[in-house]
Design goal:
The complex is a heterodimer of chains A (about 140) and B (about 425). Chain A is α/β, with parallel strands linked by helices. Helix content of chain A is about 30%, strand content about 25%. In chain A, strand 9 and strand 10 form a beta hairpin. Chain B has 19 helices and 13 strands. Chain B is α/β, with parallel strands linked by helices and about 425 residues long. Helices cover about 45% and strands about 15% of the residues of chain B. The chains are: A alpha/beta (about 140), B alpha/beta (about 425). At the A-B interface, helix 1, helix 2 and helix 3 of A face helix 2 and helix 3 of B.
């Protein structure tokens, strides 16, 4: 078990299963197809870690998101239709794309994606796919 | 009222307490939370034009449509008329199979409804669809020093770097909400510190590099940092004329899409570099040298996502981001000259030049030039090539482009301008 402490962007207590993107997570590429089909399978063929994996309702561990600046709205819509993540845990500072999506989903759609950032590179080095992750409201992240 | 870290005016506090209604409360709450995620201490007025990135009414966007309805229902509009990114479909100007048409109509079945929503929220006019809304023909051009709240990445980097306006790289639909409030959080590119350069980029190529290739190399290296570019003034001159602006538009789009650059400085060319020079560099900046070998390495690193690597292209798209009027003329002349040289009447590959509706209208006023374009088999379209490729029926086709942005976001295969010209005139050579 390893414990990390990050900054709370959108807090909450949550336990779930990890999926790990060791490269920038492309919101548009991941969810675009799924928005039309309701599928939560990652469609980003450039993401060698998550392509074709089910990322719906999972805790996505990532450095930050990348790609089109429409990505915020895409994440908001993914949360709304039920294919979004339960939480996003960032090694780096949160980016403006996913920050927009997480905040819009919370304020306008009452869909919470817990977000903790600045967990550090060691967090991404420690976490693997399929692990149990516990998130505490103060930004503590426990990798079981 | 919830506790916010940001310094708020009394009016802002009142809005957050719901005194201007529940919807306006949600507008401001979204903006404040977004700003606080980036350490913004306050909101500042937007004094430049408004541009919105989300132009497509796609299936699965119910959350967006509902949000727009809430805003409209509360009687809210942007403070000034806004422009928006390109429309996603153009059946009139791009030859489309029935199957592809069916998929597009299904994928974008809410387009009409969404455009009505945009109009109610303050859309400038029915032609206001372009990622390059800063073109003079479109008329949504900011001025140096103006505060903006844009999201379209190629427009943000152009406005910041070439014009010297100030916009963060926002994301849809935060920029629309800021346009309604008339304010945006102050952080990042809105601050002097956020506009300083983290990287010195030394361009040491033997000839002027392709802007999209150079931008890609820079973007992939610095990712979201700010580069200060030297050596281009020796190759391109220092005058910020239309040709220079076109070059910087395309280079910037590649830095923004292949990386996440929102601001660059070009020594002796862009406004802040002219004014401050290398004082813009932060202490301990990093250096990246780009020579011919480095550009060759970057070009060779691009994956080709076609099923059949030797397929004849179905289409060629030029104009991502949208072309300027100057660029349409240049491509028209180059294609015409190459066809004459090859003894051919029309292009071999169906070729689409994408530009803003207002830019296309201006070009069509020149009947002789337009006739040449049409006679040579080239079409003009107002659509977004990337959104064209979002249709899985279209993305199955082998498409070529001179856009490194389009390459990044689709299965299109990237070629340099000279190669593109050769392929569309003479057919594939690979």
């Amino acid at each position: 078990m390893k414990t990390f402490k990050g900054r709370v962007v959108l807090g909450g207590n949550l336990t779930g299963e990890s999926v790990v993107s060791r490269q920038g997570f492309n919101t548009l590429a991941t969810y675009f197809r799924g928005l039309t089909t309701g599928s939560s399978i990652c469609n980003d063929q450039n993401n060698k870690d998550l392509y074709q994996k089910d990322v719906g309702g999972k805790i996505i561990c990532l450095p930050k998101t990348i790609g089109s600046t429409t990505g915020g709205m895409i994440l908001q819509c993914a949360a709304d239709v039920g294919i979004g993540p339960a939480a996003m845990l960032y090694a780096d500072h949160i980016d403006s794309i996913s920050a927009a999506g997480i905040i819009l989903a919370e304020v306008w759609n009452d869909k919470k994606i817990v977000a903790i950032d600045q967990l550090g590179d060691e967090f991404l080095e420690a976490v693997q796919d399929g692990q149990k992750i516990e998130i505490i409201e103060d930004g503590t992240v426990i990798v079981h | 009222m919830e506790h916010y870290k940001m310094e708020l005016t009394q009016e802002e506090k009142d809005i957050l307490e719901g005194k201007q209604g529940e919807v306006m409360q949600k507008v401001l709450k979204s903006i404040v939370l977004f700003g606080e995620a980036f350490g913004a201490k306050r909101l500042v007025p937007i004094d430049g034009p408004i541009h919105v990135v989300t132009s497509f009414g796609m299936t699965g966007f119910d959350a967006v449509f509902a949000m727009m309805d809430e805003l409209i229902g509360a009687g809210l509009k942007t403070k000034e008329p806004f422009t928006v990114d390109p429309r996603p479909i153009d059946f009139d100007n791009i030859e489309t199979t029935e199957e592809s048409k069916k998929v597009s109509l299904d994928l974008y079945q809410n387009q009409e409804q969404y455009e009505e929503q945009l109009q109610k929220l303050g859309l400038k006019d029915k032609n206001a669809f372009s990622c390059a809304s800063y073109m003079p023909e479109v008329g949504n051009t900011p001025q140096r020093g103006q505060v903006l709240s844009w999201a379209e990445s190629s427009a943000v980097v152009f406005a910041n770097s070439v014009i010297g306006a100030k916009s963060n790289r926002n994301s849809g639909l935060i920029e629309l909400l800021c346009g309604i409030l008339g304010k945006t959080p102050e952080f990042g590119f809105l601050t002097d510190e956020g506009r300083r350069a983290d990287w010195l980029i030394e361009v040491k190529t033997t000839k002027t590099p392709n802007p999209m290739l150079l931008g890609s190399a820079i973007g992939m290296k610095v990712v979201g940092d700010n580069p200060y570019i030297t050596g281009l003034d020796q190759l391109l001159g220092t005058e910020l004329n239309n040709t220079m602006k076109d070059y910087l538009k395309d280079m910037g789009a590649a830095t923004a899409s292949n990386g996440a650059v929102g601001l660059y400085h070009v020594e002796n060319v862009t406004p802040e570099a002219v004014e401050h020079g290398r004082d813009l560099l932060v202490e301990g900046y990093q250096t990246y040298v780009i020579d011919d070998a480095e550009l060759d390495r970057v070009m060779a690193s691009y994956p080709v996502l076609w099923d059949d690597m030797s397929a004849e292209p179905a289409f060629c798209f030029i104009g991502c981001p949208h072309l300027s009027l100057n660029q349409i003329y240049t491509w028209n002349e180059n294609i015409d000259r190459a066809l004459k040289k090859a003894g051919k009447d029309k292009v071999t590959i169906r070729t689409i030049l994408s530009a803003a509706p207002d830019v296309i209208a201006k070009f069509k006023e020149d009947e002789k030039a337009y006739e040449t374009l049409i006679n040579n088999g080239v079409n003009l379209s107002f659509t977004c090539p990337v959104m064209y490729m979002n249709n899985p029926e279209n993305s199955k086709n082998p498409i070529i482009t001179n856009s490194n942005k389009m390459r990044t976001y689709s299965t299109a295969r990237f070629f340099l301008d000279d190669e593109v010209l050769n392929i569309i005139v003479n057919g594939k050579n690979y």
